[in-house]
């Protein structure tokens, strides 16, 4: 068969550990036989990030701005143990945090719905899409240890050099720690705009939650920006579309989400979205069944899986053992990127291929062929699940394309 031709390259960002192994298999078995794949490749594996002093991550993000669509493999965000394990020069920041800061977008995460994989929360009948602000908070924080007797202060200097000083805490009786984080009104507004537009495009209600009763400046600013934008720009459009915007405190929102039937977008600040997207993914069946796309205000897209690098399976792989690692979310990262590239370049065949690959992946699981994590939660009166190893699962999907 003739391969589908591409016009503009995708920005391809390779990653770490077991997901790096899956990445290569997905390309070779599911995509390259059908698509004349055109990518601009960046190796975001931890060793190469260390070798380049993490410049490669910024270069990849800038390439996403240049070409409009990127697809990213899961990557390691090193902690102290990883610094020692990989003999790193520095405890490099989260690659996702760096990319989000460059693109200043919003992350939308949605579960892959498959018959036989029932949500752990019985009331959930429809997908819950997490909209995660992709800038600032703890991902771009400044942290320090403070010795006993020290004092931490927040200092704000205006353009004229005038300083406003606020004491954070006096460590008279004990050493401690301090953290400073920031956000910008422009980024918060971009986040709100993306959420309102995505809700209108998908015809879904939009929920937003913070802890503004405690954080009376930081969180309250988020609440105010959303409220003002809704009232001045989106209220009429929402009413005409038959959808609603709803704000509540995050603890109340969690209780409402658990009792709901789903079917809405839940917008959250960066850290809240990180945590809640994993909770929603797990409750829907598996974190490996959660899609993720970063959408920037100027129309750039970066697709990835919502999960990590599957370290435990990687060490088994290195020892020569078979693994049964779920590649669904990584496959859907590729299909999302290929579909968006096809939409932007007017290549209908590429969009159709992405749709067919997703359908084949879902059909594979629904017909009983799956990885170990899904077999443990798969329920069907008609189908008995068969556990496949990592490569067998990908090849089973290939048979159904």
Report on the structure:
Strand 17 (369-370), helix 13 and strand 18 form a beta-alpha-beta unit. Helix 1 packs parallel to helix 14. This protein has a 10-stranded mixed beta sheet, sandwiched between helices. The protein has 401 residues and is an alpha/beta fold. Helix content is 44%, strand content 21%. It is built from 14 helices and 18 strands. The two termini are 14 Å apart.
Structure summary:
This protein has 401 residues and is of the alpha/beta class.
Radius of gyration: 22 Å
* Mean pLDDT over the full residue set: 95
Alpha-beta content class? alpha/beta
Strand content: 15-25%
Distance between the termini: 14 Å
| Main sheet: strand order | 4-2-5-16-15-6-7-14-12-13
Tell me about the largest β-sheet.
Answer: 10 strands, mixed
Report the count of strand segments: 18
Number of helices: 14
- Give the proportion of residues in helices: 40-55%
Poorly predicted runs are none
Q: What overall form do the CA principal axes indicate?
A: globular
Topology of this protein?
Elements: E1 4-5, E2 10-14, H1 17-31, E3 35-36, E4 39-43, H2 46-51, H3 55-67, E5 69-72, H4 80-86, H5 95-103, E6 106-111, E7 129-133, E8 142-146, E9 151-157, E10 163-170, E11 176-180, H6 185-202, E12 205-210, H7 218-241, E13 245-249, H8 250-259, E14 264-268, H9 270-284, E15 290-295, E16 301-305, H10 311-318, H11 328-345, H12 348-366, E17 369-370, H13 372-375, E18 386-387, H14 390-400
Parallel strand pairs: 1-3, 2-4, 2-5, 5-16, 7-14, 12-13, 12-14, 17-18
Antiparallel strand pairs: 6-7, 6-15, 8-11, 9-10, 15-16
Helix pairs in contact: 1-14, 3-5, 6-7, 11-12, 12-14
């Amino acid at each position: 068969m003739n391969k589908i031709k591409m016009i503009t390259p995708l920005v391809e960002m390779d990653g770490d550990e077991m997901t790096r192994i899956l990445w290569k298999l997905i390309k070779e078995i599911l995509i390259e036989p059908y698509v004349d794949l055109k990518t601009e490749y960046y190796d975001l594996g931890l060793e190469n990030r260390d070798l380049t002093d993490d410049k490669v991550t910024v270069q990849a993000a800038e390439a996403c701005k240049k070409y409009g669509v990127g697809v990213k493999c899961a990557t390691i965000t090193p902690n102290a143990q990883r610094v020692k394990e990989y003999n790193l020069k520095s405890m490099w920041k989260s690659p996702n945090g760096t990319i989000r800061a460059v693109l200043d977008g919003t992350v939308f995460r949605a579960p892959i719905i498959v018959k036989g994989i029932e949500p752990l929360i019985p009331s959930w009948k429809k997908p819950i899409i997490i909209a995660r602000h992709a800038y600032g908070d703890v991902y771009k924080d400044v942290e320090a240890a403070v010795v006993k007797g020290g004092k931490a202060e927040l200092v704000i200097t205006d353009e004229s050099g005038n300083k406003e000083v606020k004491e954070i805490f006096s460590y008279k009786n004990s050493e401690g720690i301090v953290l400073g984080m920031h956000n910008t009104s422009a980024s918060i507004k971009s986040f709100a705009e993306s959420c309102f537009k995505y809700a209108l495009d998908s015809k879904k209600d939009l929920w937003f939650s913070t802890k503004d009763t405690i954080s009376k400046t930081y969180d309250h600013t988020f609440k105010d920006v959303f409220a003002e934008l809704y009232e001045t720009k989106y209220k009429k459009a929402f009413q005409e579309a038959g959808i609603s915007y709803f704000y509540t405190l995050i603890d109340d929102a969690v209780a409402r989400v658990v009792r709901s039937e789903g079917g809405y977008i839940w917008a959250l600040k960066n850290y809240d979205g990180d945590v809640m997207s994993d909770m929603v993914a797990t409750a829907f069946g598996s974190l490996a069944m959660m899609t993720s796309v970063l959408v920037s205000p100027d129309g750039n897209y970066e697709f990835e899986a919502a999960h990590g690098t599957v370290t435990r399976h990687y060490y088994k792989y290195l020892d020569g053992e078979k693994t049964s690692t779920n590649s669904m979310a990584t496959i859907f990262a590729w299909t999302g990127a290929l579909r968006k590239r096809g939409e932007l370049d007017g290549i209908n065949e590429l969009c159709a291929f992405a749709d067919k690959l997703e359908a084949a992946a879902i059909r594979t699981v629904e017909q009983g062929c799956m990885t170990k994590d899904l077999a443990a939660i798969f329920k069907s009166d008609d189908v008995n699940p068969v556990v496949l190893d990592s490569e067998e699962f990908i090849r089973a999907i290939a048979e159904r394309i």
